[in-house]
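re: the backbone from monday

yeah here it is again, tokenized this time
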């Protein structure tokens, strides 16, 4: 039995509930999942070349072996050698965008591997068409994109400014879930597709929250849902281990 007392906000309560499952009482306005993801700094260093008409990305220079990190959660779709790059990595993120990393001397991930935001994926080098140790970083709108978009606004929209320090843009754990068999859904609706089920308490990073279907559990009711980018979906705030029904310090989606 849950012992943590949860604040019951006006307009979010229902009369005494004895339900032990998830019961939809009213439906909130359906909204699409937020675009983008909570970003992480790709590497530390000095930006020696920005994006322009003849350069599809940004170049960040530092010492050989400087760690290179994935800017967000996703799946590795390329990890190997390539003309010009020497070695390169491409990651398809959960929002459909693709990030590209080049010139490293060591790759630490393989094709089809799942990576998290901020995960170490390579070490900086100067292979291929390169005049010194640096990371060439690109951002693409999709796998079919033939030209990289400007990575600066792309990263800024995800909370990362250049130059940056790894860890500064990496979302940490700010809450923990409670309960078992907690369902992560594609939207804040009980009819939405289940994208993941948590077997037990799980540390999570909540990016934003919004109103949705009312959920009842342990005698409490709540219509607020948290978006967990690493899980690709929403969890009812009733299963976020915090006494407030609407989480403090978390923006609205």
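seq for it, each position gets an aa:
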């Amino acid at each position: 039995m849950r012992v943590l007392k949860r604040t019951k906000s006006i307009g979010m309560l229902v009369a005494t509930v004895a339900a032990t499952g998830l019961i939809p009482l009213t439906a909130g306005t359906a909204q699409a999942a937020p675009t983008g993801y909570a970003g992480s700094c790709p590497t530390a260093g000095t930006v020696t070349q920005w994006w322009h008409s003849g350069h599809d990305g940004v170049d960040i220079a530092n010492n050989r072996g400087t760690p290179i990190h994935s800017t967000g959660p996703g799946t590795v779709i390329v990890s190997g050698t390539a003309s010009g790059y020497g070695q390169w990595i491409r990651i398809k993120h959960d929002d459909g965008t693709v990030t590209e990393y080049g010139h490293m001397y060591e790759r630490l991930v393989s094709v089809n591997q799942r990576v998290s935001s901020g995960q170490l994926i390579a070490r900086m080098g100067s292979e291929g068409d390169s005049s010194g140790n640096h990371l060439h970083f690109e951002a693409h709108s999709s796998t079919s994109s033939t030209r990289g978009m400007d990575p600066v606004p792309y990263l800024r929209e995800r909370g990362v400014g250049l130059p940056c320090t790894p860890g500064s843009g990496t979302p940490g754990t700010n809450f923990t879930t409670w309960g078992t068999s907690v369902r992560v859904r594609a939207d804040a609706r009980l009819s939405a597709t289940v994208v993941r089920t948590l077997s037990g308490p799980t540390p999570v990073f909540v990016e934003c929250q919004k109103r949705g279907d009312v959920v009842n559990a342990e005698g409490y009711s709540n219509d607020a849902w948290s978006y967990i980018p690493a899980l690709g979906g929403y969890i009812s705030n009733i299963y976020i281990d915090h006494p407030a029904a609407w989480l403090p310090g978390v923006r609205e989606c």
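The longest helix spans residues 151-156. Residues 1-34 have pLDDT under 50 and may be disordered.
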